[in-house]
Amino acid sequence: MQDRFGAFVPGPVIHRLPHSSGPLSGLSFSVKDLFDLAGGVTGCGNPDWAATHGAAEANAWAVDALLGAGASLTGKTITDEISLGLLGINRFYGTPLNPRAPDRVPGGSSSGSASAVAGGVVDIALGTDSGGSVRIPASFCGTYGLRPTHGRISVAGMMTQAPSFDTVGYFTRDAQTFGRVGAVLLADQVPDSLPSEIVVAADCFAIADEPIRLALQPVVDRLREAVATTVSPLAEGDLLDWARHQRVLQKSEFHATFRDWIDRVNPRFSSEVAGAFADDGRIPSEDLAAAGTFREGTVRRLHGLLDGRRMLCLPTSPILPIARNARLSEMRAAVHRIVDLTAIAGLTGLPQVNLPVATSGLIPVGLSLIGWRGGDAALVAAARTLARDFSIGLFEEPS
Amino acid sequence: MQDRFGAFVPGPVIHRLPHSSGPLSGLSFSVKDLFDLAGGVTGCGNPDWAATHGAAEANAWAVDALLGAGASLTGKTITDEISLGLLGINRFYGTPLNPRAPDRVPGGSSSGSASAVAGGVVDIALGTDSGGSVRIPASFCGTYGLRPTHGRISVAGMMTQAPSFDTVGYFTRDAQTFGRVGAVLLADQVPDSLPSEIVVAADCFAIADEPIRLALQPVVDRLREAVATTVSPLAEGDLLDWARHQRVLQKSEFHATFRDWIDRVNPRFSSEVAGAFADDGRIPSEDLAAAGTFREGTVRRLHGLLDGRRMLCLPTSPILPIARNARLSEMRAAVHRIVDLTAIAGLTGLPQVNLPVATSGLIPVGLSLIGWRGGDAALVAAARTLARDFSIGLFEEPS
């Protein structure tokens, strides 16, 4: 496998043979450099992290799950530094190419994983998603991607960022493989099924840029042929409040995670990442309490709405991938916009899939479904069923 | 010359022969990597600065002045990234050793210049001083160091940081060489002379840590034998106000200098330096105006006090050099303390010399004299006269 897209961490490409044959035999996967591989240092996208951490003693749970299911590992993929970023830019190891839009960012932080899968370097890749790090690169590179229910897939052996947000996710090019990998990582059946109803989140579409809305509208129209749909706003108040509170909570947690290491090591960061630590991250307790209360409200609201039958439909990202050579100020504005939509599953801990269903010109535009708590298999099943039976999906499915 | 102290920028050591023979013939000098050398890139202590700037067309003025006076150039010295730092820590190129206190920081940002001179690698080194970048490494490494009157020595070919604060300074080990170099860079006579009176700034000593006060008290006592001294506070109000306003003004200027480059390049910085750009640097105009008014007041006050006869005496730094392996939080606290004293010459644009006159244990402790506007030659002369006639100085003077 040639790393034509600069998706792999520099250095010799890592290989691991499957533990046994299984449902994924014959498939290859890459793993984001946030997952432990026994005997090596998990570099987490930053040279000072790599230099101040020892070798892992064991493989991460998700790595062993795929090796145990017959897949073979090829390559550790580049991540945004210490997982902080949604654009896929890494100033130390290089920004992986977006194979579908080479002058645009690949999305991050699971940038190399999305790049390697979209470019056909491997069949599957593991990523992590705390604030959107699987969903956004899946949308930008045009792949399937799952952010599971929080806690549904073990995060053992994965770098911690913000514990109440951190999840293990994965990417595939086609929906059939997406289903097979889901069955392994979820340790569950992924039967053919569709939800009873899809709620099109009107306010989520309304805040998306016009190219996103124009690209997704025909897909939503086709969805109606497959499933009963209703259109209604997600938020009772201002949708942007969801992101505002997500930022507070996630920041509070990742500061707690990294504070001591930064103080000890004085690590180097790109200015983009350093900006996340611009202040000391100590958030007034009343703001934290307000965000916590708000979060509980969103959980209740979506638990009521997505009651085991309904799924929510929204754009994965409100914006197209920005240019690779964008300015820092554009990067920051883009990240801010993106979180306006990724905060929904983040706050509520609900599962979300990106469906690679549309383009604007040649640039991928992803559509998302958010499922009910624990409804991960149903979500993956919906993705596969829509692709197979309704041709909703960009990639040709294996026959 | 071996770079035993890690003072030089990594790579082949640069050499330039003198333009002609002159008063500095036989002496060697190093130059901080903030000064242009024709044909090379001025790296400014940061790889992303180096990668985004072209080769210099001409030597900096100060470089040509020393080459023209017969000195030979050996080595570009490490600086804190883009001159922002007072401790001498550089996470990209290494932190130069403090030859006099190997487990302590060398001081910065002219870290490599002070290290090379203190270690005997060269006789002279050029540095820059905006917020203390010559004075502090001179104090920490135990060398002579001049920050000239603002505007007195041409900054042509030197990286801009904060234009109303930026100065060209230099280091030597002994006072006689200090005088010879001063005569060249100031293009002036440096006659033997002492001021009529030295004002010991009581409030500046009062905010210094006890080891500093204990180390400097015997020197101040010896000063009384050379010059009439009075003891009085420098500030009419709170001395710490000087530093508070200096921080506002210098920050406003260096943000203006670097803002567009950072936005364009998304450069990598150590967390220490990134902290300087934690916010957008846009300071409320009323704060800027207040700082400007305060600055005018300090200029008036010191113009009245240092009227061409008097010099002000104070500790160069209120603290000892901190440990090389200090935490980021300790580094930040140390820088904050240091500026409490370096702000005085910074705000007023007055010349200041560090005299290597004391130690605490084996750690150098510098004493400073601040002179009147344009009284640079008199200040250098005082340093030399005190060393020669009153043995105030740590290094043995050449006979």
Model description:
The structure is a homodimer of 399-residue chains. The relative contact order of chain A is 0.15. In chain A, helix 5 packs antiparallel against helix 12, helix 8 (240-265) packs across helix 10 and helix 8 (240-265) packs across helix 11. Helices cover 37% and strands 16% of the residues of chain A. Chain A has twelve helices and twelve strands. The first copy, chain A, has one domain: Amidase signature (AS) enzymes (Alpha-Beta Complex). The mean pLDDT of chain A is 96. Chain A is of the alpha/beta class. The interface between A and B is medium-sized, with 24 and 24 residues. Strand 9 (268-270) of chain A pairs antiparallel with strand 9 (268-270) of chain B.
Task: Give a quick summary of the entry.
Chain A has helices spanning 47-51, 61-68, 111-118, 135-141, 175-186, 202-206, 210-226, 240-265, 271-274, 285-305, 328-348, 376-390, and strands at residues 15-16, 28-32, 72-77, 124-128, 144-147, 168-172, 197-201, 228-232, 268-270, 310-315, 352-360, 363-370. With 399 residues, chain A is an alpha/beta fold. Chain A has one domain (15-241, 280-390): Amidase signature (AS) enzymes (Alpha-Beta Complex), CATH 3.90.1300.
Task: Looking at this protein, list some descriptive labels.
Amidase signature (AS) enzymes; homodimer; alpha/beta; 399 residues; eleven-stranded mixed β-sheet; 12 strands
